[in-house]
Design a protein that fits this description.
The chain is α/β, with parallel strands linked by helices and about 250 residues long. It has a five-stranded antiparallel β-sheet, with helices on one face. Strands 6-7-8-9-10 form a five-stranded mixed β-sheet, sandwiched between helices. It is elongated and about 75 Å long. It starts with a strand and ends with a helix. The chain has two domains: about 130 residues, 2-Layer Sandwich (Heat Shock Protein 90), CATH 3.30.565; about 110 residues, STAS domain (Transcription Regulator spoIIAA). Helix 1 runs antiparallel to helix 2 and helix 4 runs parallel beside helix 5. The chain is built from seven helices and ten strands.
């Protein structure tokens, strides 16, 4: 799981714009596709407009809590309010085939949310409405292939090493180092994306190993990862070789 953040909003329609900026920032930092970010903003706009406009029996200030989290497959947003009980999953479906003169006003916002969001859950807990929305995210997964060759550990990375998957990778490699691994080859032949969060893990692993006489060797770097390494100067601080065999030879 990546970072989890909580945002408190007042029950004012102007707060929706502030939340939209937060959603944009969260999405960009985690490399979520623009279409997915747009969908989540639209769903939140509809849900919050409904809460702010209809959930309260008084004119007092109320706090609505939004919680954002992301794992390798789903973006989860939880909306919690203290308004009157309302389960949007039970709202009647509008008849979208009706002619203009037959169409009632309203009811389309909840319909949009139910059609756009992959998973919806509702519960009433401690006199509060809690709506959980989940969207599937693409392109944030990475596989780690582990093998032992000629006595050395080889980690093969496949996919995207980004803000989400870098946490998994860091936990994996540091656990191996703490378990006694001192010489590690990281095969990047199937890695097609790396962000600054991923670059950080290489540095952390190398700095953890160096005092113990260990070493990280990178190999088989492909474009555009090679370009990123060149920009940040990795070729001057890491052993980066053309193939896995060359990397293993350098450790013998």
């Amino acid at each position: 799981m990546s970072e989890v953040i909580a945002v408190e909003l007042k029950n004012q329609l102007s707060e929706i714009e502030r939340l939209a900026r937060i959603i944009d920032d969260f999405g960009r930092r985690h490399q979520i596709e623009p279409q997915i970010i747009y969908t989540m903003k639209l769903a939140l706009d509809e849900i919050l407009t409904n809460i702010i406009s209809y959930a309260y029996d008084d004119a007092k200030e109320h706090i609505i809590v939004i919680r954002l989290s992301l794992d390798q497959e789903k973006w989860t947003v939880e909306v919690e309010d203290d308004g009157r009980p309302f389960n949007p999953l039970n709202a009647p479906e509008p008849d979208t085939k009706q002619l203009l003169g037959e169409r009632p006003i309203g009811g389309l916002g909840i319909h949009l949310v139910r059609k756009l969001i992959d998973e919806l859950e509702y519960r009433r807990q401690n006199d509060r409405n809690i709506l959980v929305m989940r969207l599937k995210v693409k392109g944030v997964t990475m596989d780690i292939h582990e093998e032992r060759k000629d006595g050395f550990l080889v980690l093969g990375l496949e996919g995207r090493l980004d803000a989400v998957s870098s946490k998994m990778f860091e936990e994996k490699v540091l656990a191996l180092i703490d378990g006694g691994e001192r010489r590690i080859v990281i095969d990047l032949s199937r890695l097609d994306y790396v962000s600054s969060a991923g670059l950080r893990v290489f540095l952390v692993a190398s700095k953890r190993l160096t005092p113990a006489g260990g070493k990280v060797v990178l190999c088989s770097v492909q474009e555009p990862v090679k370009q990123v390494f060149d920009i940040v100067g990795f070729y001057s601080i890491f052993s980066i070789l053309n193939s896995k065999d060359e990397a293993l030879d350098s450790l013998r």
